[in-house]
Amino acid sequence: MTKRELIRLVLDGQKPPYVPWSFSFTVEAAEKLKTYYGVDDIEEPLGNHILGLGSDIGFFDNLGNDIFQDYFGVKWDRRAEKDIGIPVEVVLKEPALTGYEFPDPEHPRFFADIEKKITKYPDRFRLFRLGFSLYERAWTLRGMENLLMDFVTYPDFVQQLLEKIADYNIAQVRKACQYDIDGVYFGDDWGQQKGLIMGPKIWRKFIQPPLKRMYDTVRKECNKYLFIHSCGQVDSLFDDLVVMGLNCFNPFQPEVMDVHALLSKYRGRLTFHGGLSTQRTLPFGMPEEVRNETRRLLELGTEGSYILSPSHAVEGDVPLENMLVFIEEAQHQK
Questions:
Q1: Average pLDDT for 13-32
Q2: Full-prediction pTM beyond 0.90?
Q3: Domains and CATH numbers, the chain
Q4: Nearest 5°: phi and psi at 318?
């Protein structure tokens, strides 16, 4: 059975011969692994089951002095946070789209690596990724505080903005589905440590309708598997998301969710990707604690509907030894 077939098996709610894994690392953490393995690309030694395609955070132009500009015109400060950065300038200064032109969703750069990566890793599950896919794209353009107020004071503008972003995403998904991919991943953080940022009422009124159009494009039009990433405590939305066609949820944070209870409740209906604590165990735990938590998750995943991973991209403050522990536990389970 190939890794590609194994992920499909898990997504379909069946019991796998072993628990698959797919790990990601921030720039600083990846450098530690590159040095340890003596490679420029850590994909080979990791042996991930999922092959990430496209660009989950988009493309950035270096403006100098650690300031980068994304494809939508937003400037990001990377002096402290090196992977994405912090937005430093509001593009939509008023609650209106007047004068703003959305970029080309079918620009060749989003698809340039697909065939090359598939050729290099033909046995892996092929997942096309779109980050900042709806709410996050809206707040980066408008500013988070502004957007949260706009939900109440300028609801028509918010609906217009979210629908335009959904149109952009749908166009990119349709183009991606012309390639031999297996699934589409949308990244969009709705949660905080306790509950939704905008609350469930606003989520269902404003975010769910354009989200459903995006999901229907993936599931009904393209017949692909649907993955999403949303940080925070968002499990109150799982029933809605399952009905909307979701196959796999990430990052499955143990700090804000009961991973054991939720996996037991949704097994066969929803697959979870994540679960290993990046807020507590990985940065602060001893190697044996990492080993024990990893083994518990692997045991939990033996019945299916689970893909092992830390609950987010591993940060640079995680000791190398702790990284190697969960990697080796995954690789040696067979």
A1: 96
A2: yes
A3: 3-331 (3.20.20.210)
A4: -85, 125
